[in-house]
Amino acid sequence: MNEDRAVDGAADGGARPAGATDLGRAYDSFTDTWAPRIAAVVNDYDVKIAKVEGAYVWHAHADTDEFFLVLAGRLTLELADRDPVVLGPQQVFTVPRGLSHRPVAEPGTRILLFEPQGTVNSGDATLTGADAWVCATAGLPLTEG
Questions:
Q1: What is the Cα–Cα distance from 92 to 4, expressed in whole angstroms?
Q2: How far apart are CA 113 and CA 66, in angstroms?
Q3: In this predicted model, what pLDDT tens digit does every residue of 60-100 receive, in sequence order?
Q4: pTM of the model
Q5: Phi then psi for 28, rounded to 5 degrees?
Q6: DSSP code string of the chain
Q7: pLDDT tens-place string over residues 11-25
């Protein structure tokens, strides 16, 4: 961790990153796709960033909505029993809790997610067979620099 990403003790006893996070540098620090990094913490929510490309898996989150902000590229959210939602840069959409969805991204797409801590990116998906490639995570640490 860089000194500007040192960890301070929060009032609630948890650790939180100190200083600013440069999202450009943060995105440059990893190459894998569909493996969100925790860029910041807001109360009991994680602000996650991810590089995404191709189709992810169909899944739902029973206990929480899922907020998507596209920073670069183009993301299509395929939604069960609804028309897909297509997002470009600076566009947001919230998938309602319990709604099955599948994100599909063009190469070079970068997103930001806002989710309660502990939310696993693959939701209720069964990750076997053709879907065994998925990195199921509640967020990987961000290691800039």
A1: 29
A2: 7
A3: 999 999 999 999 999 999 999 999 999 999 999 999 999 99
A4: 0.83
A5: -70, -15
A6: --GGG-EEE-TTS-EEE-S---HHHHHHT---BS--EEEEEETTEEEEEEEEEEE---B--TT--EEEEEEES-EEEEETTS--EEE-TT-EEEEPTT--EEEEEEEEEEEEEEEETT--TTTT----GGGTT----S-EEP---
A7: 444 444 567 899 999
